Amino acid sequence: MGLLEKNAGKAHDRQRESLVEEATEAGGRLVAFEEAGVGGGKGVLSGALKSIVGGRMSVDHVQTLTFETKGRTHVFFQPYAGVAAMPGEHFAILDGALPAAVAFESGIFSNSWSAPADKAVAKALDANANLKRVAKKSKFEWALGMGKIELEWAIQIAGLGDGRSLVVLQTGRYGGFTTYKVGFAHFAALLDAITPVLDTSSRARHAPVHPCAYEPLFRAVVLGEVAEEAAPEVAEVAPEAPAATAAEAPAPRPSGATRDYADVIRGAVTPHAGKKIHVSELPAKKDKNIRSVVLPSGAQDVDIVAAFDLTMFGSGKDAVVFTATHCYAHEMDERAAFALSDLEAVDGWDGALQSNVVVRIRGVGEVKVPASGEDALVDTLRAIASANG
Question: Nearest CA to 338 among 347, 348, 351, 325?
Answer without folding.
Answer: 325
